[in-house]
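TL;DR need structure tokens for one chain.
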Amino acid sequence: MACQIDVGGPEPPGDPIPISTEAAEELEQVWESAIVAAAGSGRLTVLLSEAQVTSYLALRLENQEDPLLTDPQVYFRDGMIQIHGRTHQGAFAADILITVTPTLQPDGTISFDVSSADFGPLPAPEALRQSVSSMLTDAFTSPLGSLATGLRITTLVVDGGEAALVGELR
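>> reply
TL;DR here they are.
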């Protein structure tokens, strides 16, 4: 008989966010619409919700054989992205909270600084923090494909449950 020990960890920073296939599909549609509009007008505007990003991440992780994170919840609050979830390592289960600060760089790109990452009662190792930062960079730029190289983000706002990006083609 297998036994799992729950070591606890940080609480989620907000109420549970429902996960749905429809919200994940909305995220993809938002990116597609923004790219089509940018090709015509030279301006890109994207507004993402917590439900869209949470659903997208949850469904992607669901397809992984042994995901590092389960039950993800993504919160956009006070200029930060907070990701809460659970991890299972051997006989141990723990809550995870990763706090990320997105920063608009002078060249119009976005960087993601993992300011804190707690696994259960312990801080996460630096390698994991860097991995999460890389994952977020990919999530925010890969939908743009080749358009990303000619795009300069001019405004980035993360607050009130939404992330807004405004950019222009160079």
